[in-house]
Structure prediction request, 312 residues.
Amino acid sequence: MTSIWRRAVLSEYFILYLSVAWFAALTPITPGFATAENLGNIFSSMLPLLVVAIGQTVVLITGGIDLSVTSTIALASTVGALLTTRKEGAGPALAAIAVMLGIGIAIGAVNGLAIHSLRMPPFIVTLATMMFFSGFAIWLTASRNIHELPQAFTRIGRGLDGGIALTLIVAVAVHVILTRSILGRWLYAIGRNVRTALVSGVLVSRTTIAAYTISGVCAAVASILYTGRLETGSPVLGQRILLDVIGATVIGGASLFGGRGKVLWTVFGVLFMTLVDNSLNLLGLSNFAVLMAKGFVILGAALLDTARRRYV
Prediction:
């Protein structure tokens, strides 16, 4: 690897440069890609995905993974919709939002407790909770979508103002945690070497639970945005974004091996994945072709992660 290529790969802004290059290359051959309307769609699509990916970043920093985020989104969406359907006013909407956040906290805490207390691999624990809570959401609604949600609830996800505000709150809060708090230092310490962290006095159990709880809360916030935008509570909401979430965080710079990750990197990763998804759909490719392309992107992200580890 040449020194120039090494510097490019290790740069914090490598994925941003890649996003710009992708946009420049696809604009001439993709009808409507660079229009103001489509750029607005790209930005709107980024917001909920970014929120989920930020939570996933926190978990990846510890060396774990959270596959249950999609089931958290689905369950929070259905419960929130059931609590607000055909009920007008801010009261029911605020109560539903509080319950949705509570669901995220509960699922995240369960994941963290099981992983630490039972010494089980994060992949297995979160896969199990993903399957259980996805099935529970479908059972709860008998596989039906829930409509007639009040405007007090849906305007949060429909309007850019509400979506931007919630996303900024999450991004700034997690950035502060990772860069300005003891918890942030402990998260990175666990990801680098959990045994060394334990000997150094890091509260591994509480930090692990906190990481998965943050991920659960982020998934619940994303559920609020998705449900409001679609004006529908769905038991399969978010089912197709898991690859996008993991791909965006890893290609952004969070390491699958733990110890690396920043909110800014995740922003770049989400931007790139959203540009790829949007451009390929505008080109009229089938869902199968889009999935294949995303698979190559995620494979490239994993290879990039390995290269970064080798040369850091």
In short: The radius of gyration is 19 Å. The chain has a mean pLDDT of 90. The domain at 3-311 is CATH 1.10.3470 (ABC transporter involved in vitamin B12 uptake, BtuC).
